[in-house]
Amino acid sequence: MTVPWASEAPPQTQPIIGNDDVVRSRQHVRAFAQQCKLSLVDQTKFITAASELARNTLVYGGGGAMRAGLVERQGRRGVAAVFEDSGPGIPDIELALTDGWTSGGGLGLGLSGARRLVDEFFLDTEVDRGTTVTIVKWAR
Amino acid sequence: MELLSTDREKITSEWIDGVTSSLQGRISKAEVDRELRELYEALVQGLRAGGEETRGDGFSEVRALLTELSRNRARQGFTPSETAISVLALKQALEPVLRNDSAEETTAYLRLGRALDDLALYTVEVYTRTREEIISSQAAQLMELSTPVVKLWEGVIAVPLVGTLDSARTQVVMEKLLQALVDTGSEQAIIDITGVPAVDTQVAQHLLKTVVAARLMGAECTVSGIRPQIAQTIVALGIEFGDIVTKATLADALQHALRKSGVDLVTHQDARR
Ligand SMILES: Nc1ncnc2c1ncn2[C@@H]1O[C@H](COP(=O)(O)OP(=O)(O)OP(=O)(O)O)[C@@H](O)[C@H]1O
Ligand SMILES: [Mg+2]
């Protein structure tokens, strides 16, 4: 998936190596969500989705990075975030996206929940190569 | 190496003067003297053993000394420049030695200069790392401070959560809450999340665990202050709060808790009008 980054500003990269980086990722995403004038509900949804994916990148992907920024398509503006790791990958995507399924001690709602919280959700994963999750939310 | 060995005393004292004046007396000359003489010795050894490989084994003593120096500067509130100058001032101190213009000496100076630049960068790295450690330990202290458990009524305690809830902070809050239940002998606890910007699965899981733990201790928890955007997000995420009592406001939660603990509430409707 090629992300339609807005031309005026390049996306920002945030490494996700420790717990603090999950908080930092959330703060970057919040700034962009406010910048493209998402409603308060949509902001909260997008930030929460980013929080889930950042933590998965850290916990299951063994760390990685987030790229986030404004996007633009056919005159519409929005915010996007791409979470990338070169961890073990997800062997069974359908299972991972099942509500309540977790391989750790979580609620198993992060991935499936994040998908419901955003407008566009792309999951690209390969065993032993890594995982990339892209999310987009458009301003209304 | 040669450069540093000739005129040793002159170079070191110039260097020490340069550094002392740039720090404007905030570190005593005696202290700078001690630091730099030790460093000078290590530098000479390092150059002899490891050439200009400043990140190699030959320079491990130099790096150890610089680590200590940089950490001290960072802790004492000096700037990165005031830290790096400790190394860079040596370049200036060497200039007078270069008077006789030989090409050989110039090359030697340039190579030594590069090594010193590299070591100066090293001090900045250590400095930055130290500052980051200071910041995160302050954050940890703040975390302790910013999670008060308050007693609202006999038998009712509340913890108002404000700001981002990361895993560590939530852990602290929950432990404090459970401890306060014991200390005050309360049977009603209110967790108010009005000041929390987002509730994700991790925060929710901590909340759920706390409620269960409180129950095991014979207490009941109410979660209040769930704002509309948070409520919608929680629902979309698929989190179920089950039979946990939730209230829109802290006031509602208090009313509920008081009723549960048998306090008779009389509303003075007439008095309000
Ligand atoms: N980046 C990733 N790399 C490898 N596996 C992943 C990655 N992200 C998710 N998974 C797998 O998908 C499962 C489901 O993820 P999901 O976020 O839904 O649940 P969880 O993280 O276990 O719990 P939580 O509800 O707290 O998020 C995980 O348990 C994990 O096995
Ligand atoms: Mg998760």
UniProtKB/TrEMBL annotation, chain A:
Mind telling me which residue stretches traverse the membrane in this protein? Answer: none
Q: Which CDD domains match?
A: HATPase_RsbT-like (cd16934)
SUPFAM superfamilies attached to this UniProt entry: ATPase domain of HSP90 chaperone/DNA topoisomerase II/histidine kinase
SMART domains assigned to the protein according to its UniProt record, in alphabetical order:
HATPase_c (SM00387)
The Histidine kinase/HSP90-like ATPase domain extends over: 41-140
Q: Name one Pfam family in it.
A: HATPase_c
Protein name, per record: Anti-sigma regulatory factor
Its gene? rsbT
